[in-house]
Amino acid sequence: MSVIERAMPWKGFPRRYKGSAITVALSLLAATAAACGSSSGSSGSAASPLTFDVYSNFTGAQASSGENFILPGARLGAKAINDAGGILGHRVNIITTDGLSDPADAVPTAQRLLAQHSGLTGIIGIGSDIAPVVVPIFNSHQIP
């Protein structure tokens, strides 16, 4: 049993959800490492937050994956980072966007997210059902 499995209460959850939660935690860690590597020290205020969006399904057929598995892992990761002093002094903020469990609805929500939050550090939790239509949008804005 891995350290991650011992630290998280997995009893009663299907194996596919365990992998999702672990993937979210590792994605947040990777985005954190990317943010640290791209910082130049003088490019911004040490007090400015780094904002990560949990872009997942919170309604529709896949709603439970976002609300019960991806969002809690992201919040836990952000709390641990902030408790340790942030990323180079920057606090981590988690916001959420509902992908609506439908690729046709996911595109306008992704565009609205980018219009409302221009300074996103990264996107977490995109499900495979909506990824094909929203990942190119986020990639075009160079958001990991």
What topology emerges from the helices and strands here?
Blueprint (H helix, E strand, L loop, with lengths): L2 H5 L7 H24 L11 E7 L6 H21 L8 E7 L4 H14 L3 E5 L6 H10 L4
Parallel strand pairs: 1-2, 1-3
Spans of at least 5 consecutive residues whose pLDDT stays below 50 are 38-44
Number of strands: 3
Residue share in helix: 40-55%
Number of helices: 5
Give the N-terminus to C-terminus distance in angstroms. Answer: 30 Å
Secondary-structure element string: HHEHEHEH
Q: Give a short account of the largest sheet.
A: 3 strands, parallel
Kindly name the structural category.
Answer: alpha/beta
Rg over CA atoms, rounded to whole Å, is 15 Å
**How much is the average pLDDT?**
81
Shape: globular
Q: Roughly what fraction of the amino acids lie in strands?
A: 5-15%
Which strand order does the major sheet show?
Answer: 2-1-3
